Amino acid sequence: MVGHLTPFVDLLPVPPRRVIKKPTRLTVRLETVTHSFHRDLAPSRVWAYDGHLPGPTIEVERGSGVEVQWENRLSGPLPVLATQAPTHAEDGVPVQCLPGRSGGALDPNAAALSGYAVVHLHGALTQATSDGWTENLIAPGQDALDSYQNDQRAALLWYHDHVMGITRFNVYAGLAGLWIVRDARERELELPEGPPYELPLLLADRNFDTASDGSLTGELVHKTDPDVMECFSPFTTVNGVIWPRVDVEPTTYRFRVLNGSNARTYRLVLTREGQPDQERITQIGSDGGLLVAPARIPLQGLVLASAERADILIDFSDLALGTELTLWNNAAAPFNGAFADPSTAGRPDLEGLLPYPEVLLFRVIDGRRGGRRPSAVLATDFQRADRGQLNGCVVRAIALVEQESNRQGQPSTLTMRELTQEGATDEPVITLVEAGAGQPGQTSRWRTAATRFEDKTNFFPVLGQPEIWRLINLTGDTHPIHVHLDAFQVLSRQPAVVEIPDGGITDTDTSATVRIGQKADDHIPHSVDENELGLKDTVRVNANEVVDILVRFETFAGRYMYHCHILEHEDHDMMRPFVVMPGELMPFM
Ligand SMILES: [Cu+2]
Fold first, then answer.
1. Distance 101 CA to ligand 1 centre (A)
2. Which among 2, 39, 146, 484 would be 20 to 30 A from 158, CA to CA?
3. Before 200, cis peptide (omega within 30)?
4. Which three-class secondary structure state does DSSP give residue 343?
């Protein structure tokens, strides 16, 4: 294969840390720099926070407010070649996932981007004016001052760019970094804090241009297909380096894993001597911090879609010096939630747009020996919601919809369609049929009230009131749906049989029948995994699936967003606003 790089030769880098114990003001500069993604690859031009890719990790005590002066000193052009090439070459080989631009045409509009930016701190409870509203841009040469309260449970957050329409390019160019909130509960549990025994793993797939001899030039390439909008790149970077190696002592490590890819979902499988060796992994936290109890990762591996995080412990204490364990990606792209046998980990899958499944190598070296089991009780500050006690709360429904373009050579448009419940109606509706136990199904009808980001705002959740948001996937792929502001609980994941009549999806209307229940040929496991029982801010909504989440905005009022975290979907047009309202203002609306 062209452009091959040797795996596991570079050591895992750890981004620089800024440890903050009391209220502080920081300056972070957005800069154009060069970065080395691999020992054998020419340096790449990137956009990065404080010149580091990923940016510096901000580690802050709960409740210590941090003001960040974001100084935009980026210089154009965009350090990414944005190209369109067909998914398959004439000989049927899927080229979308291969190194190089595959002869694709460069996007002149992307090449003209000069460096407008806006920073969002993902997973943070942030006042609306500092949440990185997608249209509040700072140009190169301008600054923004944002306040982050950090008054939330300990968790791995991340800051990244969020510019309307071009988030996919700005994040791909390097604008992402980690942010860790620490608290007393984690200290009571004596969890590793900081290197060497706590390490962040920021995963992101990247592609590079090739020279005429097939060698990689180091120039970043974002490649999509004229019909398919997602970018699936061949090389997995961890903390900015392709396929690194980490030397571990025979003890327990804590890894803070984030999938920071634009579109690719990872299903991480750990192997030793070619066999899955996953029992040594225990998951203790997810997007919103600690789980109530330690969880085994799912049998098929640790699945993380874009923006999802996992706080995991890996126990290396029983291993002899020199032992090597490999972490592979075993997820086909695009991802739809289907189960994969972990014994296939390590095999390339070109049809699944996975030419290189390598992620990371662990090698056991001499050092501290002895493992630690996590405490049986982790979080003590929250309880799983009791569905029976949610009767009568506001239910909102959102359909995830793919609308094929009526212009040849244009990708489909993906939208999140906000729905309102109707009685009997002649209008186009989504008919939802819910199976009652031994009873005729309960039927409800849902009219489309908004499809695009600019459409009228419909969601005005009241501060402090619980709501159920029902995410109905009418597409064939998984969408990781992210809600800004407070984390939520995943209440349920139900299989559904979706029927869309010809012409059922238009710019403004949606007609479909969605029957709760599993089709015989649907092999996707539609259940909430044990490691999804904590607080989440991003949830996978798989194909043929209806996911209910319990949201409650407790602290800040104001205008926020929710969206698909596949960045190519978010950019067009799976994103919508909502406005959190104090109850006392509702009579005046
Ligand atoms: Cu999506």
1. 24
2. 39
3. no
4. helix
pLDDT of residue 75: 97
Q: What is the DSSP code string of 407-469? A: STT-PPEEEEEEEEEESS-SS-EEEEEEEETTEEEEEEEEEEEE-STTSPP---PBTT--EEE
**To the nearest 10°, the Cα dihedral for 285, 291, 296, 301?**
-40
Amino acid, single-letter form, for residue 251: T
Cα–Cα distance, 307 to 479 (Å, whole number) = 11
Tell me the CA–centroid distance for residue 166 and ligand 1, in Å: 15
Tokens 């440890």 belong to: 19
Q: Where are the beta strands (DSSP E) in 213-308?
A: 216-224, 235-238, 241-242, 245-248, 252-259, 266-272, 275-276, 281-286, 289-296, 302-304
What spatial distance separates the first Cα and last Cα of the chain, rounded to whole Å?
61
DSSP H/E element including 72 = strand 66-73
Quick one: which H or E segment has residue 570? helix 567-571
The whole-angstrom separation of Cα 575 and Cα 484 is 11
Looking at residue 367, what is its pLDDT? Answer: 96
pLDDT of residue 407: 77
The two counts, helices (H) then strands (E), for the chain are 4, 37
Contact, 480 vs 538, CB < 8 A?
A: yes
User: In Å, what is the CA distance from 499 to each residue of 103, 472, 475, 519?
Assistant: 38, 12, 11, 12
Cβ–Cβ < 8 Å for 202, 258: yes
Residues of the chain with pLDDT under 70: 1-3, 436-440
Calculate how far, in angstroms, residue 263's C-alpha sits from the geometric centre of ligand 1: 8
Give 95-146 pLDDT, tens digit per residue.
Answer: 889 999 988 899 999 999 999 999 999 999 999 999 999 999 999 999 999 9
**Nearest CA among 299, 350, 352, 353 for reference residue 525:** 299
Q: What is the DSSP letter of 254?
A: E
What is the rounded CA–CA span in Å between residue 29 and residue 70?
6
CB-based burial, 199-219: b 16+ in 10 Å, e otherwise:
bbbbbbbbbbbbeeeebbbbb
Q: Say how many Å lie between the CA of residue 561 and the centre of ligand 1.
A: 15
* Cα→Cα distances 407→86, 316, 383, 574, Å: 16, 55, 50, 20
